[in-house]
Amino acid sequence: MLIVGIVVAALLLAAGIWWALRRRGSGKKQSPTTIRDDAAAWTIDRVLRTLATACAQQERAMPGIGAVIVDADTVWLRLIGPDEQPTTGWTAAQQGRTWSAPLRSLQNAPVDDALPAPCPRLVSVGDSSSGRFLLNLEAADGLIALDGDARLARALAEDWIEELATSPWSQGITLLRIGFTEQPVAGSDGVKNAAGLDEAAEQLEEAEGGVLVLGRAPSAREAERLGALAQDPDGRWTVLVLGHPKSASWRMAVDAAGLLETGLLREPIRVRTRARRLEPA
To answer: Which of 5, 140, 156, 277 maximizes the CB count within 10 A of its CB?
Structure first.
């Protein structure tokens, strides 16, 4: 275990150096209040890129990833559909619905930076009993609803917007906020704002795609329009709304204690948001 700890520590140290250089080269500054630390973000980004590289080398498609779970030693992928033939370095379990790999084995795995990021719409949620939990919003096949405690739901959505604007795996994607204050997102000028769907129509049409976040419960007409946008066969837009529209295909709810039911795990996830971190003990 001592050797494993040393290897993991070396990986995280290298991660911090590599990511710092990458951020310096991009000219962006990272917010000190983010829920994500740079070394951990780099580790997750590298893990997914090694997987994408291995899949490309073996001339096979990437598995559909619904969630990523990481602890000090291991990374787990919760797949959208079963796949019992994992790439080299990975092990399948639960009839192919979960892949896992030890972090130390991925330290020297090849990475082809020319490949696109495999999960550009991945967001940090919080802590599960197995480790840090991240959701791939792109896995939704329709409207995503985030409900429950209004304050924490909004804080979580705001943190996801900031993470998508600054994380290594989502650089370059379009982010559109509707119903939020136009407070700038630290480290990025790429977040677009609109007062409503009508105002956002041109941006939705012209952008190649991205993530749209509606900061309030949609009307029936808005829910219909957003649902059609989210179900586009090309998968251009991921749509997240605060509230509980009947048309949502993926529903999540966070309670006042900070526990999020994702619908992917039997256990709730304890969310980590700036709102909760700033609360007095």
So the answer is: 156
